[in-house]
Amino acid sequence: MRSGTIDDGSFRGPMNLQATLESGQTFLWERTDEASYGAPVRTDVTPWYRTVHDGNVLEVRQTTDGLEWRGSEGVGQVLRSRLRLSDDLDRILDRTPDDRVIQRAIGRYRGMRLVNEPFFPTVISFILSAQMRIPRIHRLVSTLRRTYGQAHSRNGDVYYEFPSPESLAAASEADLREKGLGYRAPYVTKSAALIADGEIDPDEVRTLPYEEARDALMELVGVGHKVADCVLLFSLGFDEAVPLDTWIRSAIADHFPEAAGESYRETSRAIRERFGPEPGYTQTYVFHYLRSGGEDDTGAD
DNA sequence: CGCCAGGCCTTAC
DNA sequence: GTAAGGCATGGC
Predict the structure, then answer these.
(1) Which nucleotide has the least CA–C1' distance to A25?
(2) Is the distance between the Cβ of A243 and the closest atom of strand B smaller than 7 Å?
(3) Nucleic acid strand B within 7 Å of A287 CB
(4) Is the pTM for the entire model greater than 0.90?
(5) What is the pLDDT of residue A296?
(6) Which residues, at least 6 apart from A171, have a Cβ–Cβ distance to it below 8 Å?
């Protein structure tokens, strides 16, 4: 096993690893301390986060100097991609609109980055996300890994990778329901089959203009406008995507009422205008801020 | 108990 | 194209 560091001088702008990995953008990382997902992190003893990437166990934590990692050769480049370390975050955040809620959100979580996670796990995670709370999505994704994913051992411990499309396509709907997926079970098997068969190909979706890419993803089962936007934003690099979930809709009603349109498409276009040149980044900060307490939470300002 | 959660599907018009 | 109703499960 190799280890190394990524000095904060080697990536652009600030980094907040906990906010990045525990803000509901990705459900593919396990905190290796005993604290639960979403629990506060001490700044002096930060937890390791673990995932399995292309068959290799990978761990990362935040230090006072940047990031520290353990894993195999090439982890540095994997992290640079998945955590978007090349994004010039100060420049991005400095160009966000001069709006009170947006600036408060950035003030509290400055350093949170968008993620760039693998396509299939992201699709399934956000199919599961419909009408579910974030910690429970994370638990269900972990259940899928341990039940259907390939095992990888390291130093005597066993870790599970997120299952392949073929594996979930072959899963029994009854078993998935029994694991707690509820009515989403057939969505998972059907969408997994569409992806396994190549009918939806992320490399093709990537090449499309934003709204066409969203329509393409909606051919999957259990993927509507909102879930498609999540996949586009957190996995396919469409930084203009603004998933309109209950929290963002409530933010629109309270703070940007003029952006409320008749349809998802109209509201989406209007709020993207209001969120500035990096709508996806703005959305992620506002979502995390409101969902984690927002104005009534201590620590505002 | 009722209400809600990073909504989507089917059906009816 | 939009509008209703149903839907699994868990936390509060």
Answers:
(1) B6
(2) yes
(3) yes
(4) yes
(5) 64
(6) A148, A188, A189, A192
